[in-house]
Structures are given as C-alpha cells and as structure tokens.
Amino acid sequence: MTVTGDVPQALLDTWRAAVAAARGGAVYRALADAIAADIAAARLAPGASLPPQRRLAWTLDTAIATVTRAYADLSARGLITAETGRGTRVGRRRRADDGVIAPRLEPATRDAGSRRRPQPRAAAGEDGRMSMAADAHAEGAAGPIDLSPIDLSPIDLSPIDLSLAQPADPAAAAALARTLTAMAGSDGLLASLLAYQPARGAARHRAAGRQWLGRGGWLPDPERLTVTAGAQHALVVALAAVAAPGDSIAVECLANPSILAAVRFRGVRLKPLPIDAEGADPAALDRMAAEDGRLRAAILQPSLHNPTGAIMSPARRAMLAQVVTNRGLLLIEDDVHAPLGLPGALPAPVAALIPDSTVLIGSPSKVLGPGLRTGWLAAPASLDDRISAALWASAWMAPPLGAEVVSRWIADGMAASLTASARAANIRRRELLARRLPGLDMTRDRACAQAWIRLPDDWDPDRFADAAEAAGVRVAPARAFTVAPTPVPVAARISLAAAPDDAVFLQALDRLAALLGAREPHGRTRPIA
After folding, report:
1. What PANTHER family does the record tag this protein with (predicted)?
2. Domains of the chain, with CATH numbers?
3. Prior bond of 485 cis (ω within 30°)
4. Buried/exposed 118-136: b ≥16 CB within 10 Å, e otherwise
5. Each residue's pLDDT tens digit, 417-455
6. Prediction pTM value
7. Model confidence over 217-274: pLDDT tens digits?
C-alpha cells in the first residue's frame, strides 16, 4: 500500500479542507462524510485502498482518534471494509436493485456474441443423469430430470437469480387464485378488508400467527402477538421499541443483510458475535454486555441461521436465555427460516424459555411467498406502548388482505402442504448441488433454503459474484453478510429455492461449475474461523 493508498491528492486536499472547517465540532463525522461523498460520486472505486489511519491523520493534520472514528463510521454505513493483510478498502457498492437486497424489476440484457464462456464439465465418474421424483405440486412434470451438462456458449439467457431466498412453487399461485375466488364470494369480507383494522391485527390473523410460530409443544400467548407487514417490518418495529440511535445491538458476525440494513437504518451500532456450528456464542454475548454499557439487545437466528444453516441446541438456547436474563438484555429472535426445518428437528424457540425478554419474529415469506407481506411478532407486555407507537408510525397497520390469505392457508392445510413441498425441494436441490459442485457446500442443515458455498482460496467473493453474474447467475457474496471487523469468508450464498424448477437450477449450477473450473487467481480473503 502506498502512503495515500489509492486516494488521489485532490481528494486528500478536499478531506483536509473538510477537517479544517469542522474544527471544534464533530471532525470525525466531517471526514467520514467527505469520504462517503467521494465513494458515492465514484471518485473512489470499489476495492480502492485507503491510507493507514496513522498516515492519514498525519497527512490531514488531525488526531489518529479522529481517523479511527471516521473509519468506524464508514464501516457502520457499509461503505468500507478492513481485512487482515489487505488494509482498509472501499466496499463493493450495491445498487438499490441488487438481488442481495431486493429483486430486480427487469432482467439485465447481455451481448452474448461478444463473450465466450467455458464449457461446464461433469464431475469425474458421473454419467450426467440422476433420477429425481417430481415435485408433488409441479404440473406436467414426469420422468427423470436430465442432468446432462448444458452447452451455454452459443446462447444468452437472462440471469438466473440465486441471490434471493424466496420460494418459486407454482402451486402457491394456483392456491392464491382459488382463495381469492372464495374470498370474493364471502359476503362483506372484502369490504371489511378495505377498512382500518385493530392496531395489532384482527383476532383471526393473530390466531393464525400463533399457530405458525408455535413449535416443540409451545405456543405464544395470543395477547402478545402483533400482525406486521412481513418479517422486515416486524424487525424495524422491534428495533424501534428496544434501542435508540447510538445504542449497541449484538448480531452474529455473519448475519442476514436485511437485519444489517434495519440496524443501520435505526442508527444503532452493530456488535458482531462469533459463531460456530451451533450459531452465536452466549459466553461472548455475556462478555460484550459486561464491556458495553449501551448494549441493549441481541438479534439472533437460533434456528436455521442465515447464511450458515446453524441450529442452536437446547443446551445452548438455555445458556443464551440465562445470559439475556442476567444482563437485562432483550433478545430479538429471528425465526423466519424455522418452518423449513425437518419435522421435529428444531427445538422450541428461545422465546419459550424467556417470553418476557424476547421479541419473536416470524413470517411465511420463505414458504408461501414474500409478496403476501405478512408477519408476526410476539413481544413482552413491557414493550406494548413502544411497539404500538412504532407500528403506527411505520405502517399504521399490517395489510389485512395478505394476512387473510395466509390465515386461510394455515387453517385449511395449504400452508402445511406448501411447506412440505418447499422443504422437499430444498433437500432435492442440495443433492443436485452436491453432484454439480462437490465438496463446496458448508451449510449446517440440509433442509436450509440456501447453501453456504466455500470458494477456492484464489477467489475474492465480490469478484466471484461479479464473474458469476457475467456468466448469467446471481449469487450473494460473503461480504453482504459480514459484520465488520469480522474477516470476510471466502464464500458465497446461493438460494436453493429461487429457481422456478430443477432444470433452471441445474443450468445455474453448470454455469458456476464452468466458472470455477476456468477461474483465474484474484487474491486472497481470509476465511472466518
């Protein structure tokens, strides 16, 4: 790294002026804002190296603590990253329509004629075929699925988006058509759904949430349930109820990007917890609470952690409950992926152990479809006023139309049927993944809707994601899940559920296999422990 990294002298002069103008005020914020403006304007490119803190402090004639705080602020905004051996660099800019955050409305166009792609290769010893049972809900599917390697060089298909963990079962759309028809024939129902609802949702919609969230012989108290506009809305409401800007929130060092976005939007500091095969470490949370007097809560995913698929054992859940209680914290338990777990395999939520210290969040989006925008949170009575205020300020009420559809599907068994189908599809596609990309799947549980893929050490995850998109497949690079200062793993996440059928999923896997087989070194990124 040079004295100034990849920063032109003109930008350093601008930063020096910003620091000088802010003397006596929040100098670090002025510096952070100046750097952020240059990143936003593309005057600093993704991957550009920034000067070491001590050198930049000397160059700008300011204290090293100022630079340290400015870099920390930029890291919290997701604009820069710091990695051992690579220094501090500008992060990969993500568009508002990036598949890791939200689906794109229109597929990107590509010029197939100007690009030659390597041919996919079957794994040694394979004949390129595998017989798979047809999905219980697939229409017109019969016979074995052709797993022969696909020649991709002469064709140009729209990108296959495996960056989003969303279901793609056509049976859900067919069920929706039937349900809407039935609802239209119900006297007065549609008119009631157009009216304002009770602040916490209609009683029947809350009852459906109680059934959806219940597990392991436990059911939440129906009086503690609130209907929300999806799990993300529930998360924002919960954060508003438990933490103020400047407070700290503990999260897994690898966490769902939507969690990270909600925390940053709230202006709360992210504090990463180490994870292992069972997820977050309760002892680390205990130490963090002892050291940080502004730690208010932890947002954790004890069941089918995204992206690793880790599941907390009953013993670890008990340890976590003890730490949360002893330290006077609140736990925001993200239980969204739990319905996809194998029947009887998941323990009851941590909320069953400490309901007065837990905000439990659930949603059917990963099974029934995210467009229904329905979720629930179960929270302690002590948070009633703050949750009501946050709900009113953010959405007034949850959309009742989606909640009515979901409630009917839970009552008539359609939700259970779609859940079983989604689970079976995820397990089936994981088997396909093991054949096409052998030895790369690090996911802890085979029922997960996503796969956490170990990349060869000579790939940088961001560059792999860019190369994969150029080859026609969108994946989510590890950086999207990594909470600074955690080193970014040499990994990526792919959704098993997003492809419309197995054939398209196999096309995507063949493209990735070809890419990995023809890769060129791109530098190293230190893996996570």
Report:
1. HTH-TYPE TRANSCRIPTIONAL REGULATORY PROTEIN GABR (PTHR46577:SF1)
2. 9-90 (1.10.10.10), 112-171+416-517 (3.90.1150.10), 196-412 (3.40.640.10)
3. yes
4. bebebeeeeeeebebeebe
5. 999 999 999 999 999 999 999 999 999 999 899 999 999
6. 0.74
7. 899 999 999 999 999 999 999 999 999 988 999 999 999 998 988 888 888 999 999 9
